[in-house]
Amino acid sequence: MRIATYNVNGVNGRLDVLLRWLEGAKPDVVCLQELKAPDEKFPVRAIEEAGYGSIWHGEQRWNGVAILARGRDPHETRRGLPGDLDDGHSRYIEAAVNGIIVGCLYLPNGNPRPGPKFEYKMRWTERFEALAAELVTLDAPVVMAGDYNIIPTDDDVYKPERWLDDALFAPEAKAAYARLLAQGWMDALRHVYPDERVYTFWKYFRGAFERDAGLRIDHILLNDPAARRLKTAGVDRTVRGWEKTSDHAPVWVMLE
């Protein structure tokens, strides 16, 4: 079972890229972030024609998350991150697919730091930690996939000294990610590639992709029942080189 996460950076503007990748990679489950579309503008018909059932949580201009499942409809189990009734951002959705709980998240960017956006990022992250602490203990396999907007360590960024003032690389954000791992989650990509620089995001300018000047901010975390099924993981980095593509590349795990 191949489970992937992909910050598509505009689901309608990059629909051709998404459909091309789905046709070639044929992931069984896909978590999408940054839909940049309200619910009524989600391209459900095109995704159905590609062979996928879907659930989505959209927003007018920014954010937005979705879960796709090949040949079946995901069973929605949660919409929105609990803990703040006034938070109207569409950043979390969760579903059961073929016996696996899949959480799809788009964690706030937090820039500029310091400031209100960074404070919101850390409040959101604290709420996510609370939910993750519950889900990690489940007997069922749980996969938490998405754009975490956190660079966990120096090994996850090209020239880390250039990111010291960025919210993605803030000590508070890195500490929060470390706390998630301490709960018992496995960082699947880092587990498979413990000593390699593996990136999932490259900026559009200065030839960042061509120079491989990237970051690792798209993560797939597995609880113990899911981790015991892990066969391999990877990044479909060739997708980042396509025309009119997202600045992220799809990340995936293969579970037995």
From TrEMBL:
Mg(2+) binds at residues 7, 34, 147, 149, 247-248. Coiled coil: none annotated. Probably binds two magnesium or manganese ions per subunit. It comes from the Bacteria. The record marks 149 as: Transition state stabilizer. The active site is at residues 106, 147, 248. Pfam families: Exo_endo_phos. InterPro entries: AP_endonuc_1, AP_endonuclease_F1_BS, Endo/exonu/phosph_ase_sf, Endo/exonuclease/phosphatase, ExoIII-like. The record marks 248 as: Interaction with DNA substrate. Residues 4-248 form the Endonuclease/exonuclease/phosphatase domain. The record marks 218 as: Important for catalytic activity. Its EC number is 3.1.11.2. CDD domains: ExoIII-like_AP-endo. GO terms for molecular function: DNA binding; double-stranded DNA 3'-5' DNA exonuclease activity; endonuclease activity; metal ion binding. One of its GO terms (biological process) is DNA repair. It is an enzyme of class 3 (hydrolase). Keywords: Hydrolase, Magnesium, Manganese, Metal-binding. Its cofactor is Mg(2+); Mn(2+). PANTHER family: EXODEOXYRIBONUCLEASE III (PTHR43250). Belongs to the DNA repair enzymes AP/ExoA family. NCBIfam families: exoDNase_III, xth. This is Exodeoxyribonuclease III. It comes from Sphingomonas edaphi. The lineage of its organism: Bacteria, Pseudomonadati, Pseudomonadota, Alphaproteobacteria, Sphingomonadales.
